[in-house]
Amino acid sequence: MADDIRCLVTGATGYIGGRLVPALLDRGLQVRAMARTPEKLDDAAWRSQVEVVRGDLTDTDSLATAFAGMDVVYYLVHSMGTSKDFVAEEAESACNVVAAAKQAGVRRVVYLSGLHPEGAELSRHLASRTEVGDILVESGIETVVLQAGIVIGSGSASFEMIRHLTDRLPVMTAPKWVHNKIQPISIDDALYYLVEAATAEVPASRTWDIGGPDVLEYGEAMQVYADVAGLHPRRFVVLPWLTPTLASRWVGLVTPIPSGLARPLVESLECDAVMGNHDIDTVIPRPPGGLTGYRDAITQALRENGTVAKGGRRHLVRFSPAVAQ
């Protein structure tokens, strides 16, 4: 039964983790939330319904305590934007998670990774995510790796980059990746798959791609955002020589995304981010109401942020620049 399953959510102060906890509770699962600084969760609406523990993926002693008695561990922590060498730190963290999970007798690990094409030269961010997934899958612990692209929701770093670039730049110089294909997924659909991954029957440890119903170019995604937000269509001047370093500095100038986070995100746009495998439905049925389309996901995200369109013009109700990973 669902209420007998004990779940640990690592990275509970992050964008996905903070929303996953109440979604798991709604599903009737028992939840323990792990954070480097547990005090950051004091004001969470769900705080009284969960056990909160301190834990750091680089601190094996803290993991032994946090993992004890857990059936499912959600791996939602990454070092992008917080570590000088996030690739090495993430590989070390993955090995620490495997060791702690084995010691605690954890039944399943659920890891959220990123969409990427097979055989392509990946950015440091995507290559690191892939390496972590491989470490988990090969660990001998039952592992479900869900690979998602851009998550559409107010506060998601990838969505905030689209929002701020489109809001502030009617005409923008852009790298060639504005023509790359993306397959966004709404935050609600991403959370649905994550929650169901706790109890889904899987044939073996492996990766499954998840995404929304729409595939579009990155530039098209910004145009759809502009239309929903009541802005005039945006114009792009594509500069093929604009490197990821220059592009990330440009993103840093016009968005609140820290440079340490902006560069890995920008580098990841150098390749398409669409579903490569489409058999997630064989282990997790689609959401009861169906997958959320990109336009509807944008509309919902703007409502969450307090931004609505009135008479073809944008009306800002309130502004929250919070950008979470």
What does this structure look like?
It contains 10 helices and 15 strands. It is α/β, with parallel strands linked by helices and about 325 residues long. Mean pLDDT is about 90; it is low at about 310-325. Helices cover about 35% and strands about 20% of the residues. It has helices at about 15-25, 60-65, 85-105, 125-135, 155-170, 185-195, 220-230, 245-255, 260-270, 295-305, and strands at about 5-10, 30-35, 50-55, 70-75, 110-115, 140-150, 150, 170-175, 180, 185, 205-210, 215, 235-240, 305-310, 315. The protein has a domain at about 1-150 and about 185-210: Rossmann fold. The protein starts with 5 loop residues before the first strand and ends in a 9-residue tail after the last strand. Helix 4 (about 125-135) links the parallel strand 5 (about 110-115) and strand 6 (about 140-150). A 7-stranded parallel sheet has the order 3-2-1-4-5-6-11, sandwiched between helices. A two-stranded parallel ribbon has the order 7-10. Strands 8-13 form a two-stranded parallel ribbon.
Q: What can be said about this structure in brief?
A:
This protein has 325 residues and is an alpha/beta fold.
Please name the defining characteristics of this protein.
325 residues; alpha/beta; Rossmann fold; seven-stranded parallel β-sheet; two-stranded parallel sheet; 10 helices; 15 strands; 37% helix; 18% strand; globular
